C-alpha cells in the first residue's frame, strides 16, 4: 500500500512535495512560500550561491535544520562541470546530496543523457546521494538505478514550461520498473499536474516555476502542499477501480419493483 511518508536513501520525509528556489520575486517571499508548502526538500542552484559570502546569499534564508538542502548543478554543460559543482557544495558544508542536472542546450534545457550518466557514476562512487534529472527515458532510468542513484527524476515537460505531463507513457514505464523513488520534475504548472503524477504512481514531485511565478507564490505553495497531501491520502485510502458499465449508487430495493 502507498505510504504517506517518503523515504530516500534511508531518510524519511513527511511531505512528498519538493520545491525549487529560483524565480521568486524576493528571498522573503521564497522563505514564506517554503513554510506555507510544508515541503522538506529544497533545491538550490549552486551557480546562484556565493560560497565565499554565506551571510549574504540565498542560503541565509533557508533553515537547514528544517529543510534538506539539495544543491543542484543547474547550468552545468557536461559531467566534469557537474562533478566540480557538487564537490564545491560539499566542501562548503552542504550534505552530500545533489540534484544532478546537465543541460548543455540553452533553448530547451533538456538533460544530456550521456553526460548525466557519466557524472552520476563518478558522484555515486564519491559518496554522494545522487538525484538525477533526466528525460523520461526508461532505459536510462534503470541504468542510473543500477549504478546507485537514490532516485530518478524524469521530466514531464521542459523546465519552466508549465505544460504538464507530456511524457506520461514513458513515466509509467519508469515507475513500473523502478525500485527507487521516482520524482516527476519539470513541467508541472498546475495542481492537477501534480495530482496526475501521483495517480500514475510517482513517489514525489518537484515544483518551482508554478509556485514562484504565481501572482501569490505563498498561497500557491500552500495550495500545492495541500493538493499533494490530499492526493496521497486518497491513494492510501484505496481508490476504487474504474468500471466499464454504470453501477447505481443507490441500488434498487424490493418495494420499488412491486
From TrEMBL:
Q: Per the annotation, which location comes first and is thus the protein's main one?
A: cytoplasm
Give the highest taxon in the source lineage: Bacteria
For this protein, the Enzyme Commission number is 2.8.1.10
Residue ranges of domain Thiazole synthase ThiG in the record: 7-251
Quaternary structure, from the entry? Homotetramer. Forms heterodimers with either ThiH or ThiS.
Enumerate the UniProt keywords alphabetically.
Cytoplasm, Schiff base, Thiamine biosynthesis, Transferase
What is one GO cellular-component annotation here?
cytoplasm
Active site per the UniProt annotation: 99 (schiff-base intermediate with dxp)
Q: Does the keyword Phosphoprotein apply?
A: no
Known function: Catalyzes the rearrangement of 1-deoxy-D-xylulose 5-phosphate (DXP) to produce the thiazole phosphate moiety of thiamine. Sulfur is provided by the thiocarboxylate moiety of the carrier protein ThiS. In vitro, sulfur can be provided by H(2)S.
How is this protein named in the record? Thiazole synthase
| Gene3D superfamilies per record | Aldolase class I (3.20.20.70)
Localization annotation: Cytoplasm
What reaction does this enzyme carry out catalytically?
A: [ThiS sulfur-carrier protein]-C-terminal-Gly-aminoethanethioate + 2-iminoacetate + 1-deoxy-D-xylulose 5-phosphate = [ThiS sulfur-carrier protein]-C-terminal Gly-Gly + 2-[(2R,5Z)-2-carboxy-4-methylthiazol-5(2H)-ylidene]ethyl phosphate + 2 H2O + H(+)
This chain's source organism reads Flexistipes sinusarabici (strain ATCC 49648 / DSM 4947 / MAS 10)
What are this entry's molecular-function GO terms?
thiazole synthase activity
Q: Which family does it belong to?
A: Belongs to the ThiG family.
SUPFAM superfamilies (alphabetical): ThiG-like (SSF110399)
Pathway(s) this gene product operates in, as recorded in its UniProt entry = Cofactor biosynthesis; thiamine diphosphate biosynthesis
Any idea which positions bind 1-deoxy-D-xylulose 5-phosphate? Answer: 160, 186-187, 208-209
Q: Which gene is annotated as encoding this protein in its UniProt record?
A: thiG
Its BP terms in the Gene Ontology are: thiamine diphosphate biosynthetic process
Amino acid at each position: 500500500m502507498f505510504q504517506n511518508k517518503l523515504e530516500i536513501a534511508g531518510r524519511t520525509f513527511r511531505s512528498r512535495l519538493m520545491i525549487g528556489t529560483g524565480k521568486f520575486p524576493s528571498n522573503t517571499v521564497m522563505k514564506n512560500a517554503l513554510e506555507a508548502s510544508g515541503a522538506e526538500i529544497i533545491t538550490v542552484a549552486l551557480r546562484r550561491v556565493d560560497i565565499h559570502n554565506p551571510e549574504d546569499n540565498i542560503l541565509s534564508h533557508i533553515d537547514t535544520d528544517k529543510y534538506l538542502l539539495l544543491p543542484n548543478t543547474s547550468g552545468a554543460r557536461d559531467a566534469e562541470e557537474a562533478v566540480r559543482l557538487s564537490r564545491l557544495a560539499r566542501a562548503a558544508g552542504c550534505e552530500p546530496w545533489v540534484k544532478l542536472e546537465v543541460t548543455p542546450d540553452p533553448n530547451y534545457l533538456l538533460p544530456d543523457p550521456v553526460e548525466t550518466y557519466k557524472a552520476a557514476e563518478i558522484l555515486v562512487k564519491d559518496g554522494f546521494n545522487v538525484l538525477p534529472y533526466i528525460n523520461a527515458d526508461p532505459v536510462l532510468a534503470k541504468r542510473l538505478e543500477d549504478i546507485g542513484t537514490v532516485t530518478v527524476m524524469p521530466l514531464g515537460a521542459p523546465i519552466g514550461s508549465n505544460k504538464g505531463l507530456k511524457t506520461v507513457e514513458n513515466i509509467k514505464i519508469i515507475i513500473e520498473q523502478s525500485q527507487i523513488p521516482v520524482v516527476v520534475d519539470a513541467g508541472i504548472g498546475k495542481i492537477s499536474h501534480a495530482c496526475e503524477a501521483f495517480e500514475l504512481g510517482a513517489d514525489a514531485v518537484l515544483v518551482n516555476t508554478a509556485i514562484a511565478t504565481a501572482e501569490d507564490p505563498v498561497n500557491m505553495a500552500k495550495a500545492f502542499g495541500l493538493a499533494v497531501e490530499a492526493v496521497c491520502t486518497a491513494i492510501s485510502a484505496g481508490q476504487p477501480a474504474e468500471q466499464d458499465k454504470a453501477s447505481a449508487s443507490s441500488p434498487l430495493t424490493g418495494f420499488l419493483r412491486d
